[in-house]
Here is the input.
Amino acid sequence: MSEQTRRTRVSAAGLYVPLLLGAVVTVTLGVYGSVHTPTGIAVNVAGFSGPQTVKVWLASGAALLALVQLVSAFAMWGKFGSRVPSWIGTLHRWSGRFAFLLTVPVAVHCLYALGFATYDTRTLVHSLLGCFFFGAFTVKMLSLPKRGLPGWTLPLLGGAVFTLLIGLWLTSSFWYFTTIGVRF
Ligand code: HEM
Here is the structure.
């Protein structure tokens, strides 16, 4: 085994614990969503026609902020030229934090009121993506402070979290906008 391969394997070992804890989060949400009896509880917010539209717009806000995070990540990696604005790192971090914060009340309602649904392909895929999203987010957050991880770690984890969130948006808000309509 080459010295380079050995070093990559050793540095990738630092991912084992984050990956394990991410898997625990994903499985725990899936099991809870499956065994818990959905309560159907719904909380409405003034200005919205119902709890479902509140979730649809919160999830759309999260997806939009995730796009800001993606573009700012490309800028940080110099994809838009070598001159990187000093504030781009702050924009990347805060857009990510607010995107995640917007998903939490939505997911709490999904899991507590609706549960892990399998009654059609869309809701099954959506439910799976929801559980993997929080697992992947856990792996990314636990890997961030680690030094010496392979260079591909953060782009891969960031890309996975972004793709899962956009998949969640497509299987919920986008479905709602194209099936029921764009409304508040
Ligand atoms: C954590 C695991 C999750 C599970 C098990 C789950 C499950 C569900 C289920 C069963 C529905 C109802 C689908 C329907 O009958 O139309 C739903 C709706 C919805 N979910 Fe989730 N979800 C999860 C996470 C998320 C997350 C993280 C987001 C946001 C980023 C999200 C956004 C939405 C939205 C906007 C709706 C309403 C639109 C719709 O009815 O499809 N969900 N979810």
Notes: The radius of gyration is 18 Å. The chain has a mean pLDDT of 92. The chain has one domain: 3-179.
